[in-house]
Amino acid sequence: ETGVTQTPRHLVMGMTNKKSLKCEQHLGHNAMYWYKQSAKKPLELMFVYSLEERVENNSVPSRFSPECPNSSHLFLHLHTLQPEDSALYLCASSQDRGFSQPQHFGDGTRLSIL
Amino acid sequence: GQNIDQPTEMTATEGAIVQINCTYQTSGFNGLFWYQQHAGEAPTFLSYNVLDGLEEKGRFSSFLSRSKGYSYLLLKELQMKDSASYLCAVRVSDTGRRALTFGSGTRLQVQP
After folding, report:
1. Backbone angles phi, psi at B97, to 5 degrees
2. Cis ω on the peptide bond leading into residue A83 (within 30° of 0)?
3. Distances, alpha carbon A108 to alpha carbons A37, A105, B112, in Å
4. What's the count of helices (H) and strands (E) in chain B, helices before strands?
5. Is the pLDDT of residue B97 over 70?
6. What is the CA radius of gyration of chain A?
7. Is B57 in CB contact (< 8 Å) with chain A?
8. Fewer CB atoms near the end CB (10 Å): N or C, chain A?
9. Which residues pair with B112 in a beta bridge?
10. What is the pLDDT of residue A55?
11. Partners of residue B50 in chain A, C-beta under 8 Å
């Protein structure tokens, strides 16, 4: 139990579907992140939220749309995805105070695009 | 740009010691993290180094040389449960950048 919960754990969707990934953290942190993890590639940062404001958007296609309604919840809305978007999507949270604070990750959502 | 290199795979024997290296070239530096990730699970935090030297935490130790852009993770008394991927990540000092830049990870296989 990492204190960061992601749902669903697995998702299969067609390219025309719309779905959302959910992340909830129970650690009292004030920053949340979305990362993409593809096979044999480094984790790629997608979005960063600090105090519920988006502070970084790492050139992610508009078919990925994040939402952070409060400091405990983070969503990733998906629409018109491509096969290359199949990957593990990881959510993380941290206390945005100094550089030494580690990020705590959820178990991820394994996304498969048909 | 940012570049972080670590070996793709390593194999070691139960009870032995293994050293996983990480080299980095980044624009600015505000610390290096090591994470462990078992297959299908979340990466979990192992260590943080920002000053040169060795940080020891039980069976795991992490070393940093900022002048060489080099770090290693040392695992002693290896156990089967240590079979996992080990991720090296750097926090750069760009203004407002809170996130980490990760290497591709080293998959460690511990054999009996």
Report:
1. -85, 115
2. no
3. 9, 8, 30
4. 0, 11
5. no
6. 13
7. no
8. N
9. none
10. 75
11. 99-100
CA A47 and chain centroid, separation: 7
What average pLDDT is seen over chain B?
93
Tell whether the model's pLDDT for residue B96 goes beyond 70. no
Per-residue model confidence as pLDDT tens digits over A24-81: 999 999 999 999 999 888 999 999 998 777 777 778 999 999 999 999 999 999 999 9
Facing B91 at nearest CB: one of A2, A40, A99: A99
Give the whole-angstrom CA distance, residue A32 versus residue A48. Answer: 6
Closest chain B residue to A50, measured at CA: B98
Residue A89 DSSP symbol? E
CA angle centred on A46, ends A72 and A1, rounded to 5°: 45
- Banded model confidence at residue B74, pLDDT cuts 50, 70, 90: very high
Name A48's Cβ contacts closer than 8 Å, sequence gap at least 6.
Answer: A31, A32, A33, A54, A55, A56, B98, B99
Phi and psi angles of residue A17, each rounded to the nearest 5 degrees, phi first: -75, 165
Say if residues A23 and A32 touch (Cβ distance below 8 Å). yes
Residues A81-102, mean pLDDT to the nearest whole number: 90
Count the neighbouring beta carbons within 10 Å of the beta carbon of residue B74. Answer: 15
